[in-house]
Amino acid sequence: MEILKMSLSASVFILAIAIIRAFALHRLPKRTFYVLWAVALCRLLIPFSVSSLFSIYTLANILKTHFSTMDTTVTGMAPINIGTAAETINASLAKTASKDISIFMVVWVIGLLACALFFLATHLRWRREYKTALPAENEFVKAWQRSHPTRRKVEIRQSDRLATPLAYGIFRSVILLPKGTDWTNEQHLEYILIHELVHIQRFDTLMKLFLVAAVCVHWFNPLVWRMYVLANRDIELSCDEAVVRTVGENMKSAYALALIGLEEKRSSIIPLVNNFSKNAIEERIVAIMKMKKTSIITLVAAVLIVTGASIGFATESPASTAATTSSRSESSTERLARIETNTPSARPVNEKALPEYWKMGALNDKGVPYLPLVTTAENLGYTVNVVSKNIDNPQYPNTVEYNYELVKDGKSLGIASLDISDGKVVTSMIDGIFCNTHDQATHTSIVLQNDTIYMPAQFFKEALDTVNKLP
Length: 471
What we know:
Layout (H helix, E strand, L loop, with lengths): L1 H23 L6 H15 L10 H14 L10 E2 L4 H12 L5 H28 L3 E2 L3 H9 L6 E6 L6 E3 L4 E6 L7 H16 L2 H14 L4 H26 L4 H10 L12 E2 L5 H9 L6 H19 L3 H4 L10 H6 L16 H6 L3 E3 L2 E5 H7 L3 E9 L7 E10 L2 E11 L2 E7 L14 E5 L2 E5 H8 L7
Parallel strand pairs: 3-5
Antiparallel strand pairs: 1-13, 2-3, 4-5, 4-6, 7-8, 8-14, 9-10, 10-11, 11-12, 13-14
Helix pairs in contact: 1-2, 1-9, 1-12, 2-8, 2-9, 2-12, 5-8, 7-9, 8-9, 10-11
């Protein structure tokens, strides 16, 4: 399921951010982590990915291919013989179309709705409380607001139902102050107002909305919940940093004291607002006191970390994102229409060449050498586009469809579609160059070993090796 792939991929990125945060929280600008969490949210919520040669998944694929070709020969493994009859595939697809929604999908939807209802109910309950707030009738507040004009309308109100200040609203924002605020302490009051205004200017409420959406969609992933906590903290830390930059670093002690003065009295959860001091107050105080002027070196380091982490952990391997439109939904006519191939005239495998294949790490099944499909085809100059997706198959549970498309000089030469269930190839459909062998049994003999598809060396010699590169 695509949602699982998105969640697992984002989990790696979340772990990377958490590690960077643990070692560099007080060394980098706090906005660094704000940006990293925003990239992680894109990975969690946008249902497509960007490919990069510098992705860690590209490296993982290279290592996997390298070690799979170094496997020692395996004996006693019978190839799985599968037919290519169209009627078998069509019957399977017909049953799939009428299959009920999987249990996993039902559970996921129930969890999503439960989370969404919880956050929505909590938010609406507090919104009703906010509507009882009255305008802040204070001369200093009015004067401060006049001296800080904004493009969006911002109201400053007071409520007797709050213990700490907060800001809410995206386009019609409100700064809400507790009625018990010390209105005579104008310095502390200014810190509070600047802090909440920074939240509004940065659209932090919108950021929190996306965080809630990510938690609802990926409610089953504990790392996403951890991201929700850390990202909310970093929103506050980034805001604190902006306030200190505004009022001057010589005032950070006074600002820290203002935070301490606002004790944490609220016990309810308010998910879509920006609170002045509700997340990790101790961490915020330490961060404020350790805050230093950002140097050019620190700024460059932050840019490199954001860029490197985003490219390395938030992108996919090109092999996993190519040819996303290639799937079994195409008709046989459509598939064959984009296949251009000629039968090569290479020599078949002979017994004298067998020792060379064993040295190459070919699988040995009763004296027949089998080579990995993707690696061997790429070594012969072909591009292999691999696309996989989960499918519902009433006959075979936990079925994943793999499409292998061979491309050369921009032309699609052939497509092999395989259904794998519980580690076994159960059905297949092949077109074009995959059929170019003299022995029909050659292209219907497939071995699945360590998540790698192997086909007989004779197939590669007759169908792909146009320059006799293989032994």
